[in-house]
């Protein structure tokens, strides 16, 4: 499973983007549903979604987002951890935009994946900081 790598991702998020991490952990932004997504479980799902989306189980990714991400990763060893932070922040922003509740989690994750795939497919994305959603880590 994704338990250990997801825990490493969460620790990276807390260490390198503490303000953003606390904002998501304590659900400080926006009008929230009574039943929120469980934070750690959401983190595991984000890790799993990234591994699938980037086709990291394969010897060589076949999707454009996966191919582009490998190029980014070759120049930045923290790229996966930072992408995780971006994806988590993106998922939370989508959660708020959709006014989601607990039962909407899979749909929120699906929509977030589509958005992230689009961003990783852009021609002018050569570094993880080039992703438009990177700014979500600094709000």
TrEMBL record:
Pfam families named among the record's database cross-references: ELMO_CED12
Domain ELMO: 1-120
InterPro entries named among the record's database cross-references: ELMO_dom (IPR006816), ELMO_domain-containing (IPR050868)
Designated name of the protein: ELMO domain-containing protein
Native species: Amborella trichopoda
């Amino acid at each position: 499973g994704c338990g250990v790598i997801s825990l490493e991702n969460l620790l990276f998020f807390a260490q390198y983007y503490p303000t953003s991490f606390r904002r998501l952990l304590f659900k400080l932004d926006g009008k929230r549903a009574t039943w929120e997504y469980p934070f750690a479980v959401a983190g595991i799902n984000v890790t799993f979604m990234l591994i699938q989306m980037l086709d990291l189980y394969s010897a060589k990714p076949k999707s454009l987002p996966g191919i582009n991400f490998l190029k980014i990763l070759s120049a930045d060893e923290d790229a996966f951890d930072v992408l995780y932070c971006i994806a988590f922040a993106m998922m939370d922003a989508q959660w708020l935009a959709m006014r989601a509740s607990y039962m909407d989690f899979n749909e929120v994750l699906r929509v977030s994946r589509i958005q992230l795939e689009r961003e990783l497919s852009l021609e002018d994305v050569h570094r993880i900081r080039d992703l438009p959603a990177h700014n979500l880590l600094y709000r």
